[in-house]
What does this fold into?
Amino acid sequence: MEDTSAPTELLHPDSLQTNVASFKTAFQNHGLRDDLIYFACKANSHPSFLEAAKKAEIGIDVTSEKELADALAAGLDPVRIIVTSAIKTDTLLQRCVDLHVTTVVDNFDELKLLQQQQSSKTPIMIRLGGWQFNGTPSATRFGFLPSQISQIVELCQQAKFDIRGVQFHLKGYSLEERTTGIEHALGVISTLREAGFQPEILDIGGGIPVSYLASETEWIEFNAQLQSSILDRRDEVTFNRDGLGFFNVKGEIVGAPSFYPYWNKLTKGEYLDALLKRNLINGQSVAKNLKSQRISLQIEPGRALLDQCGCLLAKVAFNKTDSAGRHLTGLFMNRTQLMSSSSDFCVDPIALSERPTKATYLVGSYCIESDVIMKRRLHIPELRRGELLLIPNTAAYVTSLFASNSHGLGEVRRVVLEGSGGLP
Ligand SMILES: Cc1ncc(COP(=O)(O)O)c(C=O)c1O
It folds into this structure.
């Protein structure tokens, strides 16, 4: 690695095949179609992943004109592309109409615009949200509410849309909530069929869990020690006792974790298998309901397809002690280069050194006090200037979602590795 002010991400796109295989096995075990897997390329839009997805014969889920153009340039057939963007420009919608790319419609403005740009063959899917879960609407800002379905039917009848199916994407990972989403979606599909449409696809979006940690015990222990530190019952576990979503209110923990559940029992295909086995209100499994109603299940994983497809290498700039007496390891990178929607990346880095372990915080190159790359205090072998730290499993969102190029320090460089070996 050159002496650079930005880190390097090593990508291993071939590992995507293993993740695809995990989902295919789950579909096959239930006798369902196994080709309706769409890679949510917003998770990492590096061209090597588009190529890997094409090689694995899966589709691509795109969220902008640029991603659509990239998917087409990678040789994807428009029928293997789906557009799920939260915001859609007029030209993106026109491209979808012209190319017959399936568009997941989120709101009435999009439906009306499509109606104006219309060709009656425009394939669409209706995004759903706000169904009842545990007595309250499932919380989301996306999709149409249950009360809006009859209005959609009317509008789509006027416009003669080709409704291919319905879609939803959960913000969490709950099997229970997802099952209620499927129940609701099946109800909407039957309403659409009664109205003369022929929807055949139920798309449950992405959000299929990944496990970043091998040990559940380690994860439980971290959570326990974090809470103990927030309650001032021990020394710092995180920088300045950051609660990562939890707070100490009069000696009680309140709040909820604002970080990803880095350990999960059910992941990828095993999670899908468990979902397909769950019973719906009629006492039959999700898989049986889908088959008896001639509906195919579609998924749009981003994170799960990129599991073990990338790792980040950063060079050490300095060792020092801050005014609170804490040891700091300065890196040639900044915290936006390791930032997803999770409040911390709770995976231990691997120090490429055999020196004794030292407690330290990783800090970055921006001139702001808060440029702390990982909020957790780490216990890793000491590294000296010029030596390398490896951060595992970074391909999905972590190095790209919020990465900025402030201070002129450069962007994450990406190097593609080939071969069957896999990454650390
Ligand atoms: C509509 C939709 N589909 C798929 C995904 C991919 O989710 P994940 O990367 O968690 O699998 C997202 C993520 O935000 C999404 O909003």
In short: The CA atoms of residues 62 and 83 lie 5 Å apart. The longest strand covers residues 310-321. The mean pLDDT is 95.
